[in-house]
Amino acid sequence: MITISINGKEIRLEKPMTVLEAARSAGIKIPTLCWHEQLEKYGGCRLCLVEVEKMPRLQTACTLMVADGMVIRTETGRIADVRRGILEFLLINHPLDCPYCDKAGECDLQDLVEKYGPVTGRFKEKKRKVPESLEDPVIVRNMERCIVCTRCVRMCEGVQGASAIAVIDRGGHSHIEPFSGGRFDCEYCGNCVSVCPVGAIMSKLHRHSYRPWQLVDEVETICPYCGVGCTLVVQVRDDVIKRVVPKLGTVVNNGLLCSRGRFGYEFVGSKERLTKPLIRIASKTHDASRVTHNEIFREATWEEAISFVAKKLEEIKDKYGSDSIAGIASPRCTNEDNYIFQKFMRTAIGTNNIDSTARTGFAGAQNFIENIFGQGATANIIPGLSNSDSVLVIGGDPTAINPILGLQIRACSRKGGNILTIGKVKGLRFFNPVSLKPVLYTETVLLEGIVTALRERIGLPGSNPNLEAGIKDINISDGEIEKTCGIKGNDFTMFMKILSESSTPSIVIGKELVQSNSGNYKLLLIAAINYLINGRIYLLSERANEQGLLDMGCAPDLLPGYRPLTFAEFRRKYENSWKTSIPDKVGFSIFEMMDAAKEGSLKALYVMGENPVFNLPDARSVEAAMKNIDFLVVQDIFLTETARLADVVFPALSWSEKDGTFTNMERRIQRLRKAVHREGMEDWRIISEVSKHMGVPLNYSNPEDIFNEVSKVSPLHRDMTYEDIEKGEAVYPYKGEPLRGVSEEIKFQVPSSKFQVSDKKLYLKLERPLFHSGTLSTKAPALVNIYPEAMARISPDTAKSLSLGDGDIVRVSTKIGSLELPVSVDKELDNSSVLLSNNFEGKGAFSLMEYTLDSVTKAPCIDYNEARIEKVNI
Amino acid sequence: MEKILLKNIENPNSADINEYKKAGGYGVLPKAIGLQPKAIIDEVKKSGLRGRGGAGFPVAMKWSFASGDPKFPKYLLCNADEGEPGTFKDRPILEKNPHLLIEGMVISGHAIGAEYGYIYLRGEYPVAKKILNKAIAEAYDAGLLGDNVSGKGMKFHLAVHQGAGAYICGEETALIESIEGNRGQPRIKPPFPVNVGAFSMPTVVNNVETISNIPYIIENGGDTYSKIGSPECPGPKLYCVSGHIEKPGVYELPMGTSLREIIYTHCGGIKGNKKLKAVIPGGVTTPVLPPDKIDCLMDFVNMPKHGSMLGSGAVIVMDESVCMVKVCLRILKFLEHESCGKCTPCREGTGWLRGVLERIENGEGSKGDIDLILSVSDNIMGKTFCPLGEGAASVVQNFVKHFRPEFEEHIKDTGCRIHDKKHASCIVHHES
Questions:
Q1: Three-state SS for A219?
Q2: Minimal Cβ distance to A170: which of B341, B352, B372
Q3: Which of A266, A406, A762, A863 could hold A399 in an S-S bridge, CB 3.0 to 4.6 Å?
Q4: How many CB atoms lie within 10 A of CB A12?
Q5: CA-CA distance, B398 to B374, in Å (whole number)?
Q6: Chain B residues with CB inside 8 Å of A154's CB?
Q7: What strands, in cross-sheet order, belong to the sheet with A49-52?
Q8: Which candidate from A45, A123, A173 shows the least CB-CB separation from B344?
Q9: Does residue B6 form part of some domain?
Q10: pLDDT tens readout for residues A648-670
């Protein structure tokens, strides 16, 4: 116990801390500028100088550690003089442009000068002049206002790990500049904006468009983009989102955001948003892309559109049966939306034909892993990653797919943990990774080699006979790895040493692994590795509520609570609660729906907040399938590629316009809150209305009502309330029962033949960019400004062999199509890949990718698409 | 007095290992390595050796802190970044007697348990870099550095790391930052480098001159050494004297020689028999002394009693022709340029002081400017992160304290009589 006195108040402390922390804990405010709770202490601004008895010099409270018996005074006349002196120094080169500066009103410097002075200036010399920099798409820099507290630099280097900016020059010439020159050219997380105490680094999005005191509404909600589930504070003026800021102290992202979360909100106010229900007037054989919206649809009233949909669905149900209708749920919609949707499909329609794009990887992989390790095996706390002593990353770049999770891996490295990667992971390349880069299509051999080596080093623990049976005969020597995968023996030895000696390892799995050839076998090998090293698994999730929609039962084989439909006992429980019968036949997966549509047996499809025509591989054949459906209903916020083919389009409310909950990848349930008002209906309400018109009322007055039902019927969510969520107690395994003991034996398929590799060939691969997520982000101008168009990324060698340079237009062709795009040379890329994103309208990689379905995970394998590139002469 | 630090430097080949050995160099090394590290530290403690970089911290104490820290590896850094204007005392050692430094580093390394040493060399010393690198190569060839020093199984590696020209990198924690490849800025203390230094490991940073005393102390014993110079801070001291002096240069004299003796006895007095106007005794940031104060004894203990400091022992002598405002301005220009920018008072204050001084010197000063610079200095004093900014404030305070009328005259006469051609007569008054 340490006892100190601050301003005569006795403070007892359990553990050593700085004087500043001690003062804050006792509610005593000491002014600071360079100090920030997320950053390493710096001691530069000198504002926190305090008097300490028996110390002749003034001491900075932010750096001085408390000692027992210390007597501290923070607000004496002498201290006030000192602070005035320091503030005077800070102001001499400051432009004093508060009337014009966006920071005014929430500026730390302004507030402190108001409190301590000086009132008049004594500085007659010329002030430092630095022109404002508007070169960046989302950030404005005004270095005249900079007080060189270096919070931005410490954030960028020490927390974000981007190391994009630094203090340039020395002394009075010190200023912050990106290493890349004029533009930041960085990850654009904007965390420097958050920590800047003055108006030196600010967001460009709302420049000169509000005053901080005019932001009347502040709503805490969850980010709409990826599965990490960061808390956002949405600040609103006149029903328009002016700014999105993070909040300190939140569990998942604690004051940090990524580019998408911070700058990607503008889609909400887009002029392209749908406003009225639409009913098709044109025939479906038209090439939808060449016809304007008014030529395809007419506007309708809600009443008309809803009763039309209800009538058509009933007709089809009567004529062709319930199973001729299917539904596609949305990982961007809330738990409540998705729960209602599956209930609608299972009760009003009477089919289990409900699925989502989670089927493209996440669902199958999670199911596979949970079958081995039990439900919740992937529900691990994200900040825990930084405490691992090693992190193995495979199948994607977490710093791009789930950026805030990526930061935890970087933090792990900073704390002395080891980063192991299989394949190139661009965002971790400066974090001292031990990277094994197997030759194309030899990943399986490498994983078998790792399992072999671990089995030899650690031995089989014997606790999971099923899994051990699957791996006991695997035998790949180090020599074979070197020969087949092209990995040096030394690298492999070092990798294995770290992996086998870790005591708290984590494994991060990206979708690329699930979507590659023999995905299920690779998952088995990863599971075996995890089993042998006793690690934790993180399954990267690209959509905000991918986990939640599965938990809500939006899957052809699952009921809410992740309960298998095929178990009559579970079915009966839901039948009792819902007072109706549930079909026992497992429904169509999303891919089976497309097949059924193609051959004509699927007559109607109801799509909620999803764009399968763009977001499923082999998009052109999906489009053909959609055109073959008699009746297509789409609920969305934009007229997507899929909506253009619909018979009826309902305009939905977006993420910031409704209440509800999201479940993130660690299975944490969090509250989504309405921030802006918009005419229209939430997804769940539209569906309830349709259901009501079909004679099956789904009566709920608000999302909380729906959630209360979920917590009654789903054994996993038992007794959960919104109140629990507010309190932060909605963390897996909640209050309910995880599913245990129903797993069957592990199904997997050992690949029979290996792909023939030719280093002369190019393969089309999917780029998962940091700045985009689905097509949603392309409706956010800020993100489009950062990453404006689809590009074919190739390696420098490939570029050289084809005489291509950045910006040259090429035609990328595969067996099923071709696209013309500018090329971008990426020195991190291997010579056998062409990378293309699937985000930009008309230029999606999925329009060029064929797929085969994995026999076990049912995920599409898309890594074998040969591509050709040729220059297009304009 | 027997020369210890500048021994043998009249020999044009003194930097050669063989010449050094001929003069008895490396003679004590085998014995030193054979001693227990604690025995070396005890001997240094007996000698009373204090660090020669300017602060005068007892060397044995610093060593025992680092040696007592259980973390390994430890590092020994030699501060050869002599950047204080007027200071060139280490240069003769670096260029003429590099093996003395190397021998001292090996013994010091053994004493603290360091296996790696760096010489952090001033960016503007390209000649010394060549000589040091050659000397280090010779020492490696002779088995005096490496994995098995003198065949005694001791490991000590040494490398030169050249700075990029920042004055602040002479501050030990900024020096460590620079060695690690970071921006040269001082670190928060505590933890002190002896516990968390280079690469977060226990580190001793000693000045070139300090380390060069070590072989003599081990060879002749701490007691013998402690009889040289002032009893409270014994040993030889290198005084580097520059300015208006007959015989400028580096003088090895007993610690505690009086400033008057240095100027008039050893350096031959003021050049051209002009009148002495002021002396800066220990590098530009030490307080300037008027002529009536030069009877002070130049050591770490006595100088503060006379209102100044020994600093690096860089004596800058100025005769009556010098404008003290201009000197003050020149020093402030230097310190403004060299301020690292980390802390507010130094970053902003040095520039402000320079600006006002410039106005005064150029005849644009106004009444109240002297009070302004004193007030600004006061706002810097005691509030900075490291001593650089305080040095600037102290320069202004002391120049005004001793030469206030000259400042007032600049303001009253709208300019400098010495440097401004407008004023025909170049008379300088003032003697107090």
A1: strand
A2: B341
A3: A406
A4: 10
A5: 10
A6: none
A7: A9-13, A2-6, A71-73, A49-52, A59-60
A8: A45
A9: no
A10: 999 999 999 999 999 999 999 99
Scored b (16 or more CB within 10 A) or e, A670-684 reads: bbbebbbebebbbbb
**Cβ atoms A154, A124 nearer than 8 A:** no
Predicted pLDDT of residue B432: 34
Nearest to B48 by CA among B204, B210, B274: B210
Mean pLDDT of A67-91: 97
A170 and B344 within 8 Å at the Cβ level: the answer is no
What average pLDDT is seen over chain B? Answer: 94
Question: Does residue A24 register a pLDDT over 50?
Answer: yes
* CB contact (8 A) between residue B348 and residue A170: no
Q: Does A172 touch chain B (CB under 8 A)?
A: yes
Residue-wise pLDDT tens digits, B226-242: 999 999 999 999 999 99
For residue B182, what pLDDT is reported? Answer: 94
CB pairs < 8 Å spanning A and B: 93
Averaged pLDDT, B242-247: 96
Strand partners, B159: B118
Neighbouring-strand partners of residue A233 = A220, A245
Q: What is the pLDDT of residue A217?
A: 85
The side-by-side arrangement of strands in the sheet containing A604-608 is A297-299, A278-280, A648-651, A631-636, A604-608, A325-328, A354-355
The pLDDT, as a whole number, for residue B391 is 96
Q: Which residues pair with A25 in a beta bridge?
A: none
- Give me the residues paired with residue A240 across strands: A237
Angle at the Cα of A246 from the Cα atoms of A654 and A666, rounded to 5 degrees = 75
Under a CB-based contact definition with an 8 Å cutoff, are residues B430 and B417 in contact?
A: no
pLDDT at residue B98 above 80? yes
Helix ranges restricted to H, A631-738: 683-693, 703-713, 722-726
Yes or no: say if A422 and A436 are a contact pair by the CB < 8 Å rule: yes
pLDDT band at B427 (very low <50, low <70, confident <90, very high): very low
Residue B203 sits at φ, ψ, to 5 deg, of -140, 135
Q: Which of B163, B197, B226 is the last residue of a domain?
A: B226
B344, B356, B364: best to mutate for the A interface, most A CBs within 10 A? B344
CB contact under 8 A, A171 and B345: no
Q: Which residues from A are below 8 Å from B196, CB to CB?
A: none
Q: How far is A193 from chain B (nearest CA, A)?
A: 20
- Contact criterion met (CB < 8 Å) for B348 and A90: yes
Among A319, A292, A224, A296, smallest CA distance to A649 is for A296
Question: Alpha-carbon Rg of chain B, whole angstroms?
Answer: 22
The answer to whether residue B2 sits within a structural domain is no
Its domain, for residue B75, covers 17-226
Model pTM?
0.94
Q: Please check whether residues B136 and B275 belong to one and the same domain.
A: no
Residue B221 maps to a domain = yes
Convert the pLDDT of each residue in B210-231 to its tens digit.
999 999 999 999 999 999 999 9
Interchain proximity A86–B379, CB inside 8 Å: yes
Same domain, B29 and B104: yes
| Contact (Cβ atoms closer than 8 angstroms) between residue A160 and residue A187 | yes
Check whether A753 has a pLDDT greater than 80: no
